Each structure stands twice: as structure tokens, then as C-alpha cells.
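User: Fold this, then the next.

Assistant: Folding the first:
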Amino acid sequence: MEDENKTGDEKKGRRPNKGIPSEDQMYLPRKDYLNGILRKEGAIKISTAWALEDVLQFIFPPKYRKSYFSCATLFLQLLREKGELHGSDIGAFVEKNKISKATFYNKVLPRLNRIGMIDRKREIGSNKMIIRWSNEFSIYLEKIAFEWKRLEPQVNEK
């Protein structure tokens, strides 16, 4: 039972890596830096609209992951336009934009899928990929925000 919480390295007797793996991180800059990062006055206000690029800065911060950020931005813009992308569309996108296949298929696409920004499926009876926009990402973050708000009065009451 104790082994269930151990990482692969720990199970093999190796020293565990320090820190959060980069594929599991989300960039949360200091709240007083948001206006500068998003180049918007009052960026944190609910009434201030953010573009796709603004949201993606928290997933692939251009300061640290510029190529991933630009690749994800182009891809999600195309997905928003089309609504659904098939394997041939994705291959054409990668070729047209001269994006590294390794970067796109091994880094960008899996991360967008893992955090719930996209939904990646296979066609029944074939191995062809279909990608659709997903709302799991927003549900996930809304749940975190909701629980934080729910806990807040308890802190103030004590």
C-alpha cells in the first residue's frame, strides 16, 4: 500500500527528483505582475477580457517556453476556427507552420490534452486522431477557485 504513492525512481531505489516536473507545472506569476505580462491595465478585473494568447501564457509562458507558446497559440486558433481537427489537418498544420513534429506531438499536444484544453480521441475502427476543444480546463480552474472562496470565510471567522 505504501508503494502506491512512490514515483518510479523511488520504487527502483533511486533518489527522487526535486521539484514539480515541468509537464505538470502551471505558471502563476506574482499578481502585481499580471498587468505587465498581459499588457493590459486592470488585467485581474473580471470585466477585462483576455485573448487566447493571454490564457496560454499560464500554460506555456513565452519567457520560458517561447516555441511551445507560439505553436499552441497557432494550433488552438485553428481549432477554434474549425471546431474539430483530424489527423490530416494536424499534419498539414505542422508542415505549413514549419513546426517540429517532436515538439508538437511530444510536448504541446500532450500538455493541452493533459490539462483539459483539448479532447483527443481516435476514430472508431481506425487509428486516426480527432481533436476537439474541451471545457475541462475551465471546469478544473473554476473548481479550485470555488473551493478557495468556500474556504475563505472559515479563515476569517477564526
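Now the next one, as you asked:
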Amino acid sequence: MAVVIANTASLTSNGLVLVFKGVNIGAVSKYTINEGQDMQAVWELGSITKGGGADIIHDTGEPFEHVPGNSTGFKIGFTRGDLYTARLNQVFGLNGVAMLSQQTTSFQVYEVSTAPDNTNNYTRVFYGCYLSKADYTVEANGAKAIQVSGEITYSRYRFL
């Protein structure tokens, strides 16, 4: 996938640019992926637990172990300088969508990482994506830049 760097005077300390269907979303100043997993405690009912080749003594009511539970998160967060003519919902193909609650179709996001020496490259595809948050911040001091923060909720991802 060819990535076209935007022709602007802005500068970021990384080379990360989000692209959706060939359209630049913007030069990214912050990018996070949030995924977690709940851990469920298995509680001790007696004072001696059998297993593992030895008797393990626990206090009654003490957690014996933790086991994986439901996965949580599934969010991609990003902040970009608002340097482009298309609003955030338009670059994600949500034309005609004024409010996030009007989304009816999911989209895919590709994260493409290319190292300078062309090693350790990867592409990760996020499926079942919806824009779940859009914040516009205008400050009267500092760099006087308009920052747009967004959050995408996804169902799953796979590495290609």
C-alpha cells in the first residue's frame, strides 16, 4: 500500500500517517490501541487444594488462581492536526453522517508499519470498525492548532 505524505508545513516526530481508502486522515501525533482481558478469580472453598502433585494449603475464601475471562477494550485512539479539508467522519467514508449514532456500516482499518531498513514490517487489519468518538479541540494559546481526537471501536484484528 503506497502512503502519500501530506504536503503541509506541519512536522511530527514520527512518520505515522493514517490513511483510509487512499485519503490522508492526517499526521498523527498520538496513536493508541487498547485491548485487555478480565481475569476471573477461582475461590478456595476448603483449606487444602489438591493438584499439581502436591497439596497446597490456602486460607478458606482465598483466591486459588485466576483464569482468563472476557476480552475488553477493542479501541484505537488517535489525535491528529486538523490540516485537511475533509472532516473526520468524511475521511472514514461516513458521508451524510452528521452524528456518530447514524453509522450503519462498519469499515476496516489497516495499520502498516515499515521499518527504515525494511525489516520487521507488518500489516495489521482491524475488522468491524466504527467511529465511536470524535473530539475537536481549538486552543487560543500555544501553537493555535486545531486538534482532532477520535476513537474507533473494532471487533477483531489479524496480522497479514
